[in-house]
Amino acid sequence: MLLTKPSVCIFLFTCILRLGYTWSVNNFLMTGPKAYLIYSSSVAAGAQSGIEECKYQFAWDRWNCPERALQLSSHGGLRSANRETAFVHAISSAGVMYTLTRNCSLGDFDNCGCDDSRNGQLGGQGWLWGGCSDNVGFGEAISKQFVDALETGQDARAAMNLHNNEAGRKAVKGTMKRTCKCHGVSGSCTTQTCWLQLPEFREVGAHLKEKYHAALKVDLLQGAGNSAAGRGAIADTFRSISTRELVHLEDSPDYCLENKTLGLLGTEGRECLRRGRALGRWERRSCRRLCGDCGLAVEERRAETVSSCNCKFHWCCAVRCEQCRRRVTKYFCSRAERPRGGAAHKPGRKS
Ligand SMILES: *[C@@H]1O[C@H](CO)[C@@H](O)[C@H](O)[C@H]1NC(C)=O
Ligand SMILES: *[C@@H]1O[C@H](CO)[C@@H](O)[C@H](O)[C@H]1NC(C)=O
Asked: Which of 208, 237, 265 is a domain's end point?
């Protein structure tokens, strides 16, 4: 059954479902606009959470998941096919699948519940499937229908996007956690029942960030046109790559310099982190990555913050606080002065 839906912009920058978009309903007995309406808010919330996770994972990278990058749909405009495009597709697709699955477990949909298909079966040494596993099969199928339907082309870019959508869904499945409960006399664990649970979405994001760093480049842009032979070559190439891996067709710019034509913001003016707080290695090197490697200086800006502190409870019933002033130093990439050594802009490693 096919149904055609009008354009729906699921959030400000991305119209994921657009005019003439066709959704095929295979496995689910729900038909008509109702099926679409039931899931569309969940799909929208999922895509939004994917984008938020993208911004979190790339907060201290030169490319920081700007809105411009979030145009998932393929029609019109410039379509890049680089590593960052791959991540955007994977995390959006993962977000949609994750949210649909979570909604299902929370009982938000009438036609779906726990996955108990394996309950009662032996899962491994000393444990049985039981309880309420999150129904990723449901989330996977519905999200596939919504997200993959955006790719209407048959060229290498479309194949790349579909591959990365699938990698996003694989990431959700692959990070699920087995949770178990012991059974037996007074807490002894003679038998256990176990079920699969979704991880925190952050974990899916971190997993996909690793995949982003390891993304594979496929050489397909030239040659493989839209001929039947070209399409066959594209299909063969993608079939040979694991759907757990992200793929891209083009190299990324270094993201140092602003280029309005290409929608690149550059790193001038970006904040970076130096000391204080418990910083990880990636954050601690952010000033070098965002500023130094791009030929920009790091500018210190001092500010004072005022906040309530040393609050005491006075009987009865008042709380009195002092006003504490705290000096904070922030760091920004600036063109103000040349970095030491006066090195010109040098394309560094990938942001
Ligand atoms: C699914 O979950 C999201 C976020 O948790 C929520 O915003 C949305 O309303 C839920 N959808 C339904 C149909 O309950
Ligand atoms: C922006 O990129 C385009 C295409 O690569 C290039 O032709 C143009 O010179 C660039 N503009 C600036 C200001 O660097």
From this structure: 265
Q: Are residues 47 and 158 in the same domain?
A: yes
pLDDT at 66: 85
Asked whether 275 and 287 are in contact (CB, 8 A), the reply is no
> Ligand 1: which atom is nearest the Cα of residue 49?
4
User: Which of 250, 262, 264, 265 for a ligand 2 pocket mutation test, highest count of atoms within 8 Å of Cβ?
Assistant: 262
Note whether 144 and 81 are same-domain residues: yes
pLDDT, residue 185, reads 81
110 Cα to the center of ligand 2, angstroms: 52
Whether residues 277 and 257 fall in one domain: no
Could you tell me if 143 and 234 lie in one domain? yes
- How far is residue 289's CA from residue 339's CA, in Å, rounded to a whole number? 13
DSSP string covering 79-113: ---SHHHHHHHHHHHHHHHHHHHHHHHTT-STT--
pTM for this entry: 0.81
Written as one string, the DSSP assignment of 66-77 is: -GGGG--S-SSS
Does any ligand 1 atom lie closer than 6 A to the CB of residue 99? yes
Range of the domain at 320: 267-336
In a domain, 69, yes or no: yes
pLDDT score recorded for residue 228: 73
CB 25 within 8 A of CB 35: yes
Q: Which residues contact 190 (CB under 8 A, 6 or more apart)?
A: 183, 184
Within-domain flag for 304: yes
Q: What percent of the chain has pLDDT over 70?
A: 80
Is-cis flag, bond preceding 317, omega within 30?
yes
Does 109 share its domain with 255?
yes
Number of domains, the chain: 2
| Nearest alpha carbon, ligand 1 atom 14 | 108
| Sequential DSSP letters for 303-350 | EEEEEEEEEEEETTTEEEEEEEEEEEEEEEEESSSPPGGGPPP---S-
Ligand nearest to the CA of 258: 2
User: Is residue 214 pLDDT above 80, yes or no?
Assistant: yes
108 CA closest ligand 1 atom index: 14
Task: Give yes or no: residues 92 and 167 share one domain.
Answer: yes
In this structure, the answer to whether residues 241 and 291 fall within a common structural domain is no
